Amino acid sequence: MRAAVLHEIGQDKLEVLDDVEAVGFGPGRVRIRVRATGLCHSDLSAMSGVLPQPAPFVPGHEGAGEVLEVGEGVTRVKPGDRVVVCWLPACGACPACKRGQTELCLAGFMNAGTPNFRRPGGDVFGFAGTGTFAEEVVVDAGCAVPIPDDVPFDIAALIGCGVTTGLGAALNTADMEAGSSVAVIGCGGVGVAAIQGARLKGAAEIVAVDPVASRREAALRFGATKAVPPEELADAKQQITGGEGFDYVFEVVGRSTTARTAYETTRRGGTLVVVGAGALDDFLQLNMFELFFDEKRILPSMYGGGDVLRSYERTIALWRADRIDLAGLITHRVPLAEINEALDQMRTGTSLRTCIEI
Prior knowledge:
Layout: E1 3-5, E2 15-17, E3 21-22, E4 29-38, H1 41-48, E5 57-58, E6 62-70, E7 82-85, H2 95-98, H3 107-110, E8 117-119, E9 122-126, E10 136-140, E11 144-146, H4 153-159, H5 162-174, E12 181-185, H6 189-200, E13 205-209, H7 213-221, E14 226-228, H8 233-241, E15 246-251, H9 256-265, E16 266-274, H10 288-294, E17 297-300, H11 308-320, E18 330-335, H12 339-348, E19 353-357
Parallel strand pairs: 5-9, 12-13, 12-15, 13-14, 15-16, 16-17, 18-19
Antiparallel strand pairs: 1-2, 3-8, 4-6, 4-10, 4-19, 6-7, 7-11, 8-9
Helix pairs in contact: 5-6, 5-11
């Protein structure tokens, strides 16, 4: 079958190959025919080494498709079912799951160290234990989440990561008050989802911050009340908050420099929500006095900070009710053979989400 493979960490191009085999099928496992997958910035981060991932590997973790085959003991899905791929399934038995913090379950991360694919030259891993830049993937049953028949595969793919992450940061993690002032730093697909979440929560002012003009324009369509490049953020803070700072600031880039800017842009007693996934060696510096004196809440948001399955259901309900726009997030579509074009679109910021049709 066909799949896009990164041979070594640090390479910036994927090779689309026809000699890849999905492996690992057996009890408790599901074979999925991938129909659509989104390109998330985390895929680029894994390729560059910012996020740890063994190589060679097939990127992709934001996918949807149909079940081809189920292993012994699998009862939640059957062949022919439409599913979204969940890269962080909850085991239901660990301490985090028992506390209701299923997004902190580590079971899914354990899958990342087991090869999902094989080529004549040896094993190939799947990013985050999945690897949706492939025609087929074999995953644990918990990774195959059924979706209703009226949800298109491209919409379902977005729900698998970016939309759930951004919406959840606003709805679950921040749980903001109506009438609040908000700034979102980084307005790709996840940032725009956070903007939509802030709008749903009744934010009075939503400032989108991004260096790319097309993304700023898109943010306004999705609910931002103002959009500025990073160098104009200080002026926006002065104009909207009188220099005090925003009630809520979302950092959706994953860098210490933007996180520091986000902290300084948050008012005293306000909330900084860290959504971007950054590098292990990139440290955010705060002095102990400001940490105490400012009383700013710093809230990391992992995969939307809530129960993933409930978040999927809520997102579908909001989409059906036309309360959120998911189709508009897809700005480009390419076949798997043109995957490197999609990578360029994300690197240059010309896309919010590119849908890879497989």
